[in-house]
Amino acid sequence: MTHDPTHDLAARMDRLEADVRQARAAARRWRAAAGGVVALGMSLVLMGQTPDRTVRGTSFVLEDPSGRRRAALQTVNGTPHLTLFDVQGKPRMDLSAGDDGRGTIGMLDGEGKVRAALGVTATGQASLVFRGPADETRAALAMNAEGAPGLVLNDGAGKTLVSLGVARGIPTVGLRDDKGELRALLAVDGKGVLRFYDAEGKRTHQLPE
User: Fold this and answer.
1) For residues 181 and 161, what is the distance between their CA atoms, to the nearest angstrom?
2) pLDDT at 98
3) Which CATH code is given to the segment(s) 6-131?
4) Which of 10, 67, 137, 163 has the fewest CB atoms lying closer than 10 Å?
5) pTM of the model
C-alpha cells in the first residue's frame, strides 16, 4: 500500500480544529480584559498623555459598534491564533503559526468545523485541503518533500479514488478502487501510456501494447 498524502494534512487540520475551539472559549473570558485595555488607552488620551505605540498583552478582542466580538488575537497552547467571527459570534477563519514553523489558515462552517485549510510547513511544502460535512477529507492539493505537486480526490469515506501528479516531469493520473488499490494509470513520458491493474495490483493491459 502507498502512503496516503492526505493523512498528515488531516492530522494537522484536527489539531487546528481543537485549537480553534479552545480559542473561542478563551476569547469569552478575555473579552472583559480587552475592554479594560481600551478603557486605559482612552483615559491616557483624555489625560493628554501619549500612549506607547506598542501595545503588549496576552490577548486582544476586536468588537463592532454593537459590542459583538468580531476578531480575537491570542495564544492557545503556546500557538498564536488570529480568529475572525461572524455576527453570531461563530469562528469563521483562523490564522495560526506553530512553533515548528508551519502556518495554517482554516475556514470554518457554522458548527466550528474546518472545511478548507491552506498550510505551509517549515520546509516550504504547501497544501490546500477540503473537507466534507462529516469531517472527511474530500480533496487535497499538496507538494511532497521533493517538490512534486499532487492532487487527490476522495470518496465520502475519505478513501482516495483519483490522484493526479507530476513527478520528475512526468504527469500521471491514477484511478483506484474502494480498497485504495491502483486500477488504472495514465502517464505521459514522450508518449502517452495507459495501464490497467487487477485487484492484486498486477498489470493486466497496457495501451499502446
Assistant:
1) 9
2) 85
3) 3.90.930
4) 67
5) 0.69
